[in-house]
Design goal:
This protein is an alpha+beta fold. About 35% of the residues lie in helices and about 25% in strands. This is GNAT superfamily N-acetyltransferase.
Length: about 150
């Protein structure tokens, strides 16, 4: 039987984190400069209410998934919201519960500080992920716009 473990990122996870995050960015046809990798890694270990945080998932001891999340204020509630910014599982382990366990870990961590609203986005073409998201969460119907 395979064992999924989800735990907070540790400094010793740098190589696995970099590999997984690079694969995630490649999936979305994105490249980031070295400076962004460096500052993101630093921020993941910087104390602060609004600094990003991360989890890594292992399957039988091998790093196979990651998530980044962060808290932010809302004008609609006293408590912060939690934005699950990045979620990735190695393609060869998809369908084994990695994504669901990472989402669950973020939800449980947010609940520890009273945050109930955990949300995320995905691209409409990401059918594999949307299958999971439709199972574990409700679709809000909102459409994203940005000013890039």
């Amino acid at each position: 039987m395979t064992e999924i473990t989800v735990r907070p990122l540790a400094q010793s996870d740098h190589a696995d984190w970099r590999r997984l995050w690079t694969d995630y960015l490649t999936f979305y046809e994105t490249k980031l400069p070295e400076e962004v990798y460096a500052v993101t890694w630093k921020r993941l270990f910087t104390a602060g209410e609004f600094e990003p945080k991360g989890f890594i998932a292992t399957l039988d001891g091998k790093a196979v998934g990651l998530t980044h999340y962060l808290y932010h204020r809302s004008c609609w509630a006293e408590q912060n919201n939690c934005y699950l910014q990045d979620l990735f599982a190695d393609p060869d382990v998809r369908g084994k519960g990695i994504g669901a366990e990472l989402i669950k870990a973020v939800k449980l961590e947010a609940a520890k500080i009273g945050v109930k609203n955990v949300y995320w986005m995905t691209h409409e073409s990401n059918a594999t992920a949307r299958k999971l998201y439709d199972y574990v969460a409700r679709r809000t119907g909102f459409i994203e716009y940005d000013l890039l």
